[in-house]
């Protein structure tokens, strides 16, 4: 039973971490695009 709980907790953490990395990738992409745009406009 303990093992099952551990597995569930781990999979939750993994999926949460995956979402967080996807979010940060999106943020980084936005920043990169923003920097490129500002360089072009200046």
Commentary on this structure:
By secondary structure, the chain is mostly helical. The chain is 95% helix and 0% strand. The protein is built from 1 helix and no strands. The chain is rod-shaped and about 60 Å long.
What descriptors fit this protein?
42 residues, mainly alpha, 1 helix, 95% helix, rod-shaped
Class of secondary structure makeup:
mainly alpha
Task: Please give the largest β-sheet.
Answer: none
Distance between the termini: 62 Å
- The succession of helices and strands, N to C, reads H
Shape: rod-shaped
Number of discrete helical segments: 1
Proportion in β-strands: under 5%
Question: What is the gyration radius calculated from CA atoms?
Answer: 18 Å
**Uncertain ranges:** none
Helix residue percentage: over 70%
Count the strands?
Answer: 0
Mean pLDDT value: 88
Short description:
With 42 residues, the chain is an all-alpha fold.
List strands and helices in order, with pairings.
Elements: H1 2-41
């Amino acid at each position: 039973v303990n093992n099952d709980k551990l597995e569930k907790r781990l999979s939750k953490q993994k999926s949460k971490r995956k979402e967080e990395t996807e979010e940060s990738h999106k943020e980084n992409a936005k920043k990169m695009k923003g920097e490129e745009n500002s360089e072009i406009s200046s």
